[in-house]
């Protein structure tokens, strides 16, 4: 019973008449931790190795019992039905993507997490529309209307690496927002503000929709955060918009994913975990249903008939400082734990 007390730090067993001679020697010469480990293993000469063997035997017995009762088959079915994601480590990747962070972001929007997800299928039916709707819902829910984090998704083939997460003054930052012509950030915000006022007048209500809801998140900022590609073009302006330059289309197969926050790094990781799970769910749905659009020849060539559980490939992306020192690596060994009940991660 004492051995099962995890917070027990000190116990003095000296002076007790013990039948176990080895234990008697230990209480006179060993630390409490070693004694408790010996007791936990069962005493009487049983060491750690014997205890480990007993655990293995116990697990085998439990597995066999489950199998005999039919529970094992259910577990196997549940495991097979889980979504699959295979992690490609930086060390295995011949051309890993790197994001360099400039010191200026610290006071504006300090945290960023990125990764690459390959093998997505957005061709069938309304798969792309569902993908964009899913992103909007995540912004509403887990991102708390973009106040704690913002998601940006890009077509990897259109991303020119290496990337830099930087800050620029509002009258210098230029971007081609989704569905618009290239414009300075200062002018974009003014334009959105005017649109919001017009929207209020037309609908005769205080609330506004679309990008107009997020304008106040940049109030009082002297510099705005942005993700810049190798050609100097801004491909992301969080928390407002992505660029038309890296816009996702039906033909997009590989994604570059980015989550930024001014709150915490952990929030970025939690949002990214959820984003990957949701994309995997949508991908499974698109493969299973073909969304009523008939057979997709390219897809059939990749998957073969009826194979809807091929893993998406998740490539690690390193975020480094200007000297090349690692700040964040996603996904690390501990990431994706929050969604592990629904997602099988092959590392």
Features of the shown structure:
14 strands, B3/B4_tRNA-bd, alpha/beta, single chain, RNA binding, 347 residues, twelve-stranded mixed beta sheet, two-stranded antiparallel ribbon
Query: Given the structure, what is the number of helices?
Result: 8
Terminal-residue CA separation: 38 Å
The percentage helix is: 25-40%
Number of strands: 14
Radius of gyration: 27 Å
Mean pLDDT: 84
Quick one: biggest sheet?
12 strands, mixed
Contiguous uncertain segments of 5+ residues: 45-49, 291-306
| Strand-residue proportion | 15-25%
* Class by SSE composition: alpha/beta
Tell me the overall shape: elongated
One letter per element, helices H and strands E, the order comes to: HHHHEEEHEEEEHEEEEHHEEE
Domain B3/B4 tRNA-binding: 108-284
Biased composition (Basic and acidic residues): 47-57
InterPro entries: B3/B4_tRNA-bd (IPR005146), Phe-tRNA-ligase_IIc_bsu (IPR045060), Phe-tRNA_synthase-like_B3/B4 (IPR020825)
Keywords: Coiled coil
Short description:
With about 350 residues, this protein is an alpha/beta fold. It is about 35% helix and about 20% strand.
What does this structure look like?
With 347 residues, the chain is of the alpha/beta class. 33% of the residues lie in helices and 20% in strands. It has 8 helices and 14 strands. Strands 1, 2, 3, 4, 5, 8, 9, 10, 11, 12, 13 and 14 form a 12-stranded mixed beta sheet that branches. Strands 6-7 form a two-stranded antiparallel ribbon. Strand 6 and strand 7 (183-184) form a beta hairpin. Helix 5 packs antiparallel against helix 7. The longest helix is centred in the last third of the chain and has 25 residues, at 265-289. It is elongated. The two termini are 38 Å apart. Residues 45-49 and 291-306 have low confidence and may be disordered. Residues 108-284 form the B3/B4 tRNA-binding domain. This is Leucine rich repeat containing 47.
């Amino acid at each position: 019973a004492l051995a099962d007390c995890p917070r027990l730090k000190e116990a003095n067993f000296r002076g007790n008449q013990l039948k176990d001679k080895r234990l008697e020697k230990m209480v006179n010469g060993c630390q409490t931790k070693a004694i408790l480990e010996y007791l936990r293993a069962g005493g009487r000469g049983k060491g750690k190795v014997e205890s480990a063997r007993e655990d293995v035997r116990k697990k085998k017995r439990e597995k066999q019992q489950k199998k005999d009762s039919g529970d094992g088959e259910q577990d196997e079915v549940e495991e097979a039905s889980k979504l699959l994601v295979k992690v490609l480590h930086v060390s295995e990747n011949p051309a890993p993507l790197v994001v360099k962070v400039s010191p200026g972001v610290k006071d504006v929007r300090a945290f960023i997490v990125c990764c690459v997800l390959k093998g997505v299928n957005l061709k069938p039916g309304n798969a792309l529309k569902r993908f964009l709707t899913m992103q909007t819902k995540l912004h509403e829910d887990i991102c708390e209307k973009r106040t704690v984090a913002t998601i940006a998704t890009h077509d990897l083939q259109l991303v020119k690496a290496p990337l830099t997460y930087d800050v620029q003054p509002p009258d210098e930052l230029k971007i081609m927002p989704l569905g618009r012509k290239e414009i300075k950030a200062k002018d974009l915000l003014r334009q959105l503000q005017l649109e919001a006022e017009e929207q209020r007048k037309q609908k005769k209500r205080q609330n506004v929709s679309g990008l107009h809801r997020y304008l106040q998140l940049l109030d009082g900022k002297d510099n705005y955060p942005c993700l810049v590609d190798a050609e100097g073009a801004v491909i992301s302006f969080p928390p407002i918009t992505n660029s038309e330059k890296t816009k996702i289309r039906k033909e997009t197969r590989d994604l570059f994913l980015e989550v930024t926050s001014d709150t915490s790094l952990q929030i970025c990781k939690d949002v990214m975990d959820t984003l990957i799970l949701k994309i995997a769910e949508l991908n499974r749905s698109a493969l299973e249903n073909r969304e009523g659009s008939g057979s997709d020849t390219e897809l059939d060539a990749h998957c073969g008939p009826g194979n809807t559980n091929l893993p998406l490939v998740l490539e690690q992306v390193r975020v480094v400082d200007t000297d090349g020192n690692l700040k964040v690596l996603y996904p690390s060994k501990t990431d994706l734990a929050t969604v592990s009940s629904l997602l099988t991660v092959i590392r």
